[in-house]
Amino acid sequence: MLFTQGRYSGFITPLSYIMDLLVVNLFTNFLPINFQNPLLFHSYITLAWVVLSFKNEFYEVHRYSKVVALLRKLFTQFIFFFLILYAYIGFFKQPLMSRLALGQYFVLVFVGVAFFKFLSYVLLMQYRGLWKGNIRRVVIIGKNSKTDQLIQVFNEREEFGYEFVKQFDAKGKNFDIMSCFMFIVNNNIDEIYCSVSEMSNKKLNAFINFADNNLKTLKFLPDNKNIFSKKLKFEYYDYLPILSLRDIPLHNSVNAVLKRAFDIAFSLFVIFGILIWLGPLLALLITLESRGPVFFIQKRTGFDNREFQCFKFRSMAVNESSDLMQAGKNDMRVTKIGKFIRKSSIDELPQFYNVLFGNMSVVGPRPHMLKHTDEYASRVDKYMLRHFVKPGITGLAQIRGYRGEIEKESDIQNRIKFDIFYVENWSFFLDLKIIVQTVLNAIRGEEKAY
């Protein structure tokens, strides 16, 4: 749909279309592409852009969309646009067209569209956050930990443009559904968020009918204890609707090949670009400070719960408890050079050999010691789900601050929460985001890297 609900939102997508189509068409004038029929070319690329945009949902950018989502849309859109652009030469038999100029045109269009897309994204965020424009007034039906988290998001992420108005306790003694409906109408509420776990079927149907009849947007918060907490795929068997749990993205062969190809290329880059000269230097410093091997090799749990040998630069004096106890703050076992390489995460670099050998990936849930796998599997719900993919040198939990020593129960629970989110929501651009954030964290130094 070109127009969406909202006071100003209906103009955003059409304006974006117009701006991008101007870029796509006007930039042809800056390069000697040698058209034989300019009108045919402009008609071709305009139609191709519109069709691709619908197919790739290029303009389906929501107020809560992340930068990673924008990058994914740009990547998908321009991969197909590149193929269609060069297909014009053969399809319409254009031997005089300059391939080089056409490539330069493609780059210019990519830069122009990306610039305007991110500019509009940032300006809209600023408009909502600073100027309180394009606001959605919302109410929440239900009172539990999930609704509390949602209220926190509405209050803290002002750039999303949500104004939290009121919360109704659906299980409270004084809850009256008709009074709730009157409040929504009288206070110009735009969106209603219902906690599924606190609503009976009768109440859910009442809210659905009310929202439909009063042009209100109705959304649901799933209960983590039931099937609706999962991503669901809606399919038809003949005319019968079927809901099924969505497959793990990395179980798709195309995604697995893409990730593996990136792992091999990136690990070779690190091995021959960094480890080839840094390794001997660190080996000398480690050996001079304390007796023992240069590398610390430890059995850890990997993909499909299989054991593998994980490599690290040795950062501790040789001790008998290394396989039983994690390093803690001010740990006496850590050497002077060990403190530095642990703080900067340089001790993890040999794991790129694990990546090259296929035991690990650049990004994924961090592999745990065998002892910890046995311990957490019995006490942390859904812990074993993290072994559906290869373990990583870095991961989503690590860039969110959950790395190193497990000091309290919430540390491991939050770590597993992020690990499971990564497993169920993997994308190539999410991997790139995690890698960039890991490098930035390593440069700054991390609080729990000890």
What structural keywords apply?
450 residues, alpha/beta, Rossmann fold, 3 domains, four-stranded parallel sheet, two-stranded antiparallel ribbon, 12% strand, flat, disordered N terminus
Describe the structure.
- This protein has 450 residues and is α/β, with parallel strands linked by helices.
- It has three domains: 9-129, no CATH class; 136-229, 3-Layer(aba) Sandwich (Rossmann fold); 253-444, no CATH class.
- 51% of the residues lie in helices and 12% in strands.
- It is built from 14 helices and ten strands.
- The strands form four sheets. It has a four-stranded parallel sheet, sandwiched between helices. A two-stranded antiparallel ribbon has the order 5-6. It has a two-stranded antiparallel ribbon with strand order 7-8.
- The longest helix has 37 residues, at 253-289.
- It is flat.
- Residues 1-7 have low confidence and may be disordered.
Gist of the model:
It is a multi-pass membrane protein. The chain has helices at residues 9-26, 38-56, 67-91, 99-129, 145-156, 177-186, 201-214, 253-289, 336-343, 351-357, 370-379, 396-399, 409-424, 428-444; strands at residues 136-141, 162-168, 191-195, 217-221, 232-237, 240-245, 295-301, 307-313, 361-363, 392-394.
Order of helices and strands: HHHHEHEHEHEEEHEEHHEHEHHH
- What is the straight-line distance between the termini? 52 Å
The shape, in one word, is flat
Tell me what portion of residues adopts beta-strand conformation.
Answer: 5-15%
Pfam families: Bac_transf, CoA_binding_3
GO molecular function: transferase activity
Transmembrane segments: 12-33, 39-58, 70-91, 103-124, 264-288
Family: Belongs to the bacterial sugar transferase family.
